[in-house]
Write a structure and sequence with these properties.
Distance between the termini: 59 Å
Number of helices: 6
Largest sheet: 2 strands, antiparallel
Strand order of the largest sheet: 1-2
Structural class: mainly alpha
Length: about 160
């Protein structure tokens, strides 16, 4: 299932799509997975290999994609690579040793305490919010603001 000098063809994607359908995956999930795999396979010079995948992920990092997004792409392409081996479209799973990035390596996810000004803005905005949130009990903006005030007093 390779052509173009070792480059995987897109010909096996419909078979992969059918497998996802047979497993009962929802259409939105199938579309998301196939688009991600297709986007990676269409990168110029891409071949299913760990070094090639790391190059793609490095480009994504440079474009500001989050660790979660990069890991999602890696998971989906790794799954596709393993599927190709199971179906004997490929002899070896070159991505079997590729590891996900640690989420705590993303500096954008570093948590810090809110300043008093930020906390005041959060409470003011929440209090004015017309939205109610919650799965089991709907909590209004005013009630959420009170919860935030109570929690802020405990700190």
């Amino acid at each position: 299932c390779r052509s173009d000098g070792g480059r995987p063809t897109l010909a096996s994607l419909p078979r992969s799509t059918q497998l996802l359908k047979d497993r009962g995956r929802c259409p939105a999930h199938i579309t998301s997975v196939i688009r991600s795999i297709q986007a990676v396979l269409e990168v110029p010079g891409f071949a299913i290999s760990e070094s090639s995948m790391m190059r793609v992920l490095g480009t994504m990092r440079g474009n500001g994609r989050s660790v979660a997004t990069r890991n999602q792409y890696l998971r989906q392409v790794k799954s596709f690579s393993a599927w190709m081996v199971r179906r004997r479209y490929a002899a070896y799973d070159d991505l079997s040793d590729a590891y996900l990035e640690r989420r705590d390596s993303d500096p954008r996810l570093t948590r810090t305490a809110l300043t008093e000004k930020q906390l005041a803005a959060l409470i003011t905005t929440t209090e004015a919010s017309p939205w109610s949130w919650g799965m089991y009990a709907r909590i209004s903006g005013k009630d959420r603001a009170e919860i935030y005030r109570a929690l802020a007093c405990r700190l």
